[in-house]
Structures are given as C-alpha cells and as structure tokens.
Amino acid sequence: MISLSRKYRAPVAVGGVILFFLFIISNISSHEGSHPKCASTLSKQSDVAPSRCIIEGTKRVQCYRDGKDVYLPFDGFLKKQFDLTGRLINKGETDERFEYFTSYAKVRTPERLDYSPTAEFGNFRTYSVEFRDRVRCISAEYGVPMSTQWDTVPYFYPIQIAQYALQHYSRNVTDKAPKIVELEAEFDPSNGQKEVIADADGGLRLKLDPRPDFATISFSWKPADPSAAFSVTVEVLRLNKTITLIYKHVDDRRCVWAEGDVLSDTYGDGEDSPVNVEAKNKQELVFAYALGTSIDPSQFTTVVRDILVDTSKGLALVQLLPLTRKESSLPGGLKIGDVKLLSLSFSGRSTLKRPIRQMTSAHGEIFLRTADWFVTNQDEQGGWPVPVMRSIADNKLVLPAGWHSAMAQGHALSVLTRAYFLTKDIRYVNAAAASLSLFETPALEGGVMNKLFNHPWYEEYPTTPGSFVLNGFMYGLVGLYDFSTVIPHGNASKKLFDDGINSLKTFLPLYDTGFGSVYDLRHLGLKTAPNIARWDYHAVHIYLLKWLNTITNEKFFDEVAERWIGYATGKRAKHN
Fold first, then answer.
1. The whole model's pTM is what?
2. How far apart are CA 295 and CA 245, in angstroms?
C-alpha cells in the first residue's frame, strides 16, 4: 500500500534547547487516557528551573520544573514514548507557536456521499504512483510501472500497476481536458495516404513545442526491424542541461539505464560509489528505455510517453541533483515546468502515422493501456501474480515468488470494470470474471482466501497461518463491488462481496486497540504482539470504512470510523 504524507513529523528545537511539554505531576496517574498539555517555550518562563528526571526508574533526562509542573523533553522522550508529532512555527521573535498532533497523517474521508464504479476511485486522483521512489520507471514496452519495492531488479507489481491505472482514470474524470498540439511532418505522396508520413529509414527529426507543460507525446508507428528507435531531446531548465532519452528495441531488465559512464552503480541506488555532482553536470547524459524485441512489422503501435516522468527517472539513477525529498516533490529534483521538450527523432526503418501529438496530459490513453496489461498478463488461475518473494512478521510468514494478492485482484476488478464501462469491450468483462475464482480458492492452493472462525477473508498476503491484513481486504471488497454492478456478469462478484462484508462486520472490533488500529491479525496465528498500524495506515482504514459505508449503508462502519478519527486526535477508549 501507498503511505500518506509525514510533513508534520519533524524535530523541534528552540535555540538549541528542545521544546518541552508540560506534565502536571499530580495528574499523571489519574488523568485517564490523555496526553500532556502544551506549554509555552522555556525562554518565556521566568520561574522555570532545571531539574533531573528519571523515567521508569532507569532513564535519566534533563527536565525543567515550574512549581508542581514539570517539563519533559518532547523530541528526546515524549515523541517516541507516545508516538506524537509536533513542529515549531517561528515567524519572528513575537510570533512563535508549537503545533502538536497525535497523528502525523491527515485523516481524509470520501468527498462524495455516494459512489459509482464509473466515477473517480477514492482519492486516487491525488496519487503520483510513477514518482514513487520504489517505481524504477514506466516500462517503454508495456506502459506500466516497474517496481523495486522488494527486489533491486525491476519487476511488475500488480497492485502498483492497478493504482497507476486508477490514478489516471480518476484524473481523466476530474481534470480539465488536456491541451493538444499536432506536430507538422511531411507525408509520403507516393502511397496516396495523407495520414502516413514518409518512411523514416533516412532519419526523421521533428521540432517539439517548447512550452514546459506540454510534456507528453503520442504517436503511432510501425517499426520494420529491431534497428528502429526513437529519441526525445529535452532541456532540464533547472540544470541548464540537454538530455537525450532513447527508446530502442532491446530486452533489458533494468527498464531504464544511463548510457556510458555516469558515475553510478548498476541500478542507480548510489550506495556503492560517491556522487560527484560537478562531474555529472559536465557529462552529456543519454538515458535508454527498453522497448523489447517483439515486433510486428504489419501493425502500427501507439506510443504514449510522459517525458517529465522519463527524464526524472533517468536523473534519479545518477543522482544528478543533490536534493532531498523535502526540497523537491519528485525524484531527480524535477517538477512540472522544469523540463522543456526540444525534438523527437526517429532512426532505422519505420513508418509513422498522423497525427503526432504533444499534450499536457494523456490520462485516458494511459488508463486504457494499463487496463490492457491486465487483459494480456492474466495467468491460468485468473490472477496477476507477484513475481518476487515476500516475507513478513520477521520472516515467520513467507510467500514464494508467484503469489496472488486479494488487493491486486480487487484493484484489477476496479480497473477492468471502469475500462468496460468506458469502452464496452467484452475483453475486460471476461478478464474480470476469470479473476473471481481466486477469491474462493484457499491460500494453501494458490488462492487469496483464508478463513477465520469459518468466515472467509480475502488476503492481501495469503500466508499460512493467515495474516488478515485489514486495508488490503477492504480494497478487495471495493473491487468486488465494482464488478458486481456489471449485470449479469457480476452476480458471482456480488455474493463474494456480501460474504466479505459479513466477515468485516464480524471481525472489525478485533482491529480496534482503544487508541488506534492494528494493521493485521498476525498475532492470532503467530501468538506474538499485535502489529499496530502506523498513523498513515490508520488513516487509510478510516477512509475505507467511510467508503464502504457509502456503498452498503452499514452504520456500524461509520461508527467505527468516527471512533478511529477520535483516536487520531488523542482520544482513547475508557478503561476500568
């Protein structure tokens, strides 16, 4: 799953002295279920004196005392002890405040009070899957993300691919129509077809629109042999540097790589060799993308590339920009407006078809190409396997490469349902229907279903014993609901959804800690300590419960969500 923002999680200091929280000593033992109240900065306390504090009889920390009130260090103790978040806002000597949060993650709830599988998918329009660090690149051959989440060699991770599709679908629904320009190119008068451009055997170079927001290109071409390639030359404005991206017909598991010596390790992690920024700035950089070697010279192939993304992924390999994620929202230090496209060139024997377009976005085209990936890459069991091993719970639970995930199956159902409603292409319905059998297949037999007290649970990680991850299960339910609306093909999906909702109502209280939620129920099978959900996952739980409430009108889901919202603001369940 994707994590939410941690922008509030920052160290807090005042003039070299860590900001302190006020503890009222007489109330520590009796103030039920609450956190300490905040005090103003020490520099403004005229009668505050240093004091020694001993925590739990062993740890010694520097405290300050003001009568019966004691200040304990926030960053050095309270933050870790209570998993708190705070930051100092300083706008001048007379304008200073401390902002305290129980949760570092912002709690979101669905904006709409209803839900339709033809509308945007949750809050995914705010996602930027392609700019995640663990996405090595967008495959030039298939047009989908390739992940390095659990392996250094990029691979196809179906959950990530589906989220990429749903992100672009949602933006296609909510964003304004893209701006488009058509590039001028001479056609071949000998074939009598004005839409076909002259064969590019001798090379063809087209000038691109230099406006920085026109970062996406689209064209149809028919390569005649593996020597055919195309390249895009761009100027990275912040670096005042020209970079070339070349797309060629080779098989290369790296997905994207830098041609030549780029002072980087093989996969661009930058851990094995020092970064020489000055030397890299002087280099002429060429980044290559693999188109694969499969060519049908009788068919035109449509290419859609977001050049800002491709450039960012190239620069991330060589760590050219010495920026942190706080200094830049995108890997490689790039953001919209930082890249200007200069030219599009073709080499080798190929034929192009009009129009050749440059645009501000291509969300609809990207979504459908990703939906097609799910149609063409479905296995015999109807699933989209994860091709790498996954271990959880300190290697106590291990999934060998090739495992299926209910979250991947559910996300895929959401993608395929939307693709069908958009195109009426029955291929998407057939793929969705074929995927349902895994929801009924036990985990031990390669499926995604485990049982808890004879109730089915659709597993994000189908381990034995079961892990019973909450957010992945709920995402699977949303996908099952989406396909259930495709009548009559979704009837089996409706039953699986109803069974899953009954399981959720039965076991949801097990995920309630009284101050937050648990990520899964691994402690039931492994007899270990519970796996407390991070605040960002707690926020996802809340959003999904609210979402399922809009679908089912089960008020219990809303009641739990509201209680969990309270936990995120410091409220706790009563104790005896």
1. 0.86
2. 21
Amino acid letter for position 35: H
Distances in Å between the alpha carbon of 349 and those of 173, 184, 186, 250, 559? 38, 20, 17, 16, 64
- Nearest-5° Cα angle at 561, 556 to 562: 100
Sheet with 204-207, side-by-side order of all strands: 204-207, 339-347, 229-236, 241-248, 285-290, 256-258
Structure tokens at 203: 């090379």
Strands 285-290 and 241-248: parallel
| DSSP assignment string, 17-61 | EE-EEEEEGGGTTTSTT-PPEE---GGG-TT-EEEEEEETTTEEE
Give the residue among 213, 191, 192, 12 at the shortest CA–CA distance from 100: 12
337: left (phi over 0), alpha (psi -120 to 50) or beta: left
Interhelix angle 555-567/535-552, nearest 10 degrees: 160
DSSP element (H, E) containing 429: helix 426-435
Tokens 């899953």, located at residue: 500
Output the CA–CA distances (angstroms, integers) from residue 176 to 118, 125, 131, 486, 527, in the order listed: 17, 13, 22, 28, 52
Show me where the domains of the chain are located: 13-101, 124-133+158-169+367-567, 178-360
Task: Give the residue ranges of DSSP H helices in 460-490.
Answer: 470-484
The enclosing H or E element of 351 equals: strand 350-359
Mean per-residue pLDDT pooled into runs of 10, the chain (576 residues):
37 36 38 43 66 92 90 90 88 81 94 93 95 94 96 97 98 96 72 57 84 95 92 91 96 92 46 50 83 92 96 85 40 76 93 92 97 98 97 95 98 98 98 98 97 97 97 98 96 98 98 98 96 97 98 97 97 94
Helix axes 363-376, 426-435, angle to 10 degrees: 50
The structure tokens listed for 483 are 């396909």
CATH class, domain 124-133+158-169+367-567, is mainly alpha
